[in-house]
Each structure stands twice: as structure tokens, then as C-alpha cells.
Design brief:
This protein is α/β, with parallel strands linked by helices. It has twelve helices and twelve strands. It is about 35% helix and about 15% strand. Strand 4, helix 5 and strand 5 form a beta-alpha-beta unit. Helix 2 runs parallel beside helix 8 and helix 3 packs across helix 4. The protein starts with 5 loop residues before the first helix and ends with a helix.
Length: about 375
Amino acid sequence: MTKPKTGEMLHLRGNALDKGEPVALPLTQSSMFHLPGDPDGHASYGRVDNPTWVHLEHVLSHLENAPCLSFPSGMGAISAALFATVKAGSRLLIPSDGYYVTRLLADRFLSNLGVSIVERPTTAFAEGGFDGIDVVFLESPSNPGLDMLDLPAIARPVREAGGITIADNTTMTPLGQRPLDLGVDVVVSSDTKAMGGHSDLLMGHVASRDAQIMERVEDWRRVSGAIPGPHEAWLLHRGLETLDVRFDRMCSSAQVLAELLASHPAVKHIRYPGLPGDPSHALAAAQTARFGFLLTITLESEAKAEQFINACPLLRPATSFGGVHSSAERRARWGDAVDPAFIRLSVGCEPVEELWPAIEASLNAL
């Protein structure tokens, strides 16, 4: 996998500056622009243009090696990608064990507009083939189960059958996995997570090398008003400047913790693609640059899971993931079809020599 040139990314703005211009990206907080005469080629209105977005999307495009558009949340990006590719009569295939809000969008809204929804579990996603499927929505690793899909092996037959593939790459980021390079047509991401990295913004993006799809995505953003705020765009740009170092620390620590947790007597079951015995290990080794910062553990009971999370001083009991603070939650509380004692653990940037003793002590106290 070709890693994006993150050093070059840090200087995308600097190498285009004129003398005396600020090195840090300015925040353009304006809904109106000075616009005498013919407006073509100039920023016109805050729902359509913003200079802060423009540079953020320049950086995101560098990371994805594809045209990119930003959105006010990950679900905003997913909605844009789906509304740009499905229509009445379309058949949409989605994972039955992926992020639950994607399923809610499909069930409560797309199905009412004449879109036929097909669900399959990640581990049997290719069973039944892809003939007659117009759009295939992929999630690999699955959230929260961490099962993997062979992206090229799915993208190829979907394209041959005339369909479009959309991959949610939130958990891996462009530094960990590159779905577009593996044949996928569209990538979506919740940049609220590791891309921003500081748990202080909601953002998302859509990337594709298909110009027609991106034109429809941009039309959707402009007409629906699903636009990011300039301050959030500015925060995400700042977060991206440290993505490389944060992602490296988080993935390295997750590998260490997974190996230690796998041998702890309080842990009944563990999933982490970096463990040689994990069902996702072979696919992850072939398809990703890193094994990620998410792992899951299952303890003896719901009560012990709650006790473990709430008693550990270096774990935030919170939903979402990918921040500099390690966090954990029982996913069953949101309705995921998992064991009540199943915990999704997002490894942050704390030194692992501090993080493991805190986790171990909390487990030992159960």
C-alpha cells in the first residue's frame, strides 16, 4: 500500500504562500463575499463556498489521492454518497452488522423513497453475488465486530455487474487502508474520529475518482445545505497535521495492549486484526498498512464490563472513538447485536507504559 506523503501534506499551503501571508490556515467566518459584477469564479455565498473548506479539501484530496468534499458529520458524508448514487427502484446492499445509523438511514428514509434494501453479515457479504445490486455499501473492518472484507474481490464483480461500491473507511483512515486503490468507487469517512482526533468537532468527507459521482455529491451538498461550518473545517485541518504521529502511536499501542489483554484471565474473548489468531488477520495483513487502534473485549458479565470501564482512570466511558484519549463502551447499550459484556476499546495517545497498568488494575479488581 502506498502511504500518502504526509510531510508533503504539511507544506501544501506553505509552498503556495506569498511573502507576508500567515503560515497557519486563516479561519474565514463569513456567509457573504464582496461580489460586484459577474460572480463566476469567485466565492459567492456561505452555503456554496468557503476558503477554509477549499484548503481543507485540498489536504483531504492529498491524503485520498482523489477529489474530496467535506461534510458536517460522518453521517452527512454517508447520506451524500447514498443520495448521489441511489434512486427509486435501486437495490442497495449494506452490512447487517456495520454501523447501526447507516442501517437506520436506509430503513427509515431510503426505503420510503423506493430503494430496496438488502442486508448481509460481513462474514457472508459476497454470498448471493452482486447481480441486480446497484449500490454496495462496505464497511471493513466492521464496526463494532472488526470483521474484514476482501475489498478488491468485491469491488471487481460489483463493477462488472454495473454497480457502484462505497466504503466507509472511518476506522482505518487513509493512512491505514486505501479503498480507492483497491477498486472501490467511493470512500466515506467520519472525520469526527481519528482524522480530527481531539473529540472537539463533527465532520466527514466523501472522496472518489469518478467525476460524475463527485458532481452529484457536490450538488447534494449545495442543494441540501449539508455544509460544514468553517470553524469545524479549520479544526479538522489542524487535526490532520498531527494525524500521522497520532495514528502511529495509537496503532502501536493497540498491538501491545491486544497481546497483553489476550492472556488476561478476565477477558473471555478478544478481537484485534493484529493478533495472528484473529479471523481478520490474514485479510488485514494483505490489505492494510496498520492493524488499527480499535480492539474489542468481552468480559464475564454486563456488570463487570461497566465496572471495568468506569473504574479505569485512563479510559473515558464515552461513545465514538479515535480521539487522543482512550475510550471504551458497551456497544449493546446502543442496540448492537453483541454480548452485553462486549466492549469496544479505542486506544488513544497515552503512553502504553501508563495505559496498560491502569487497564490491568481495573481488570484485576473485577
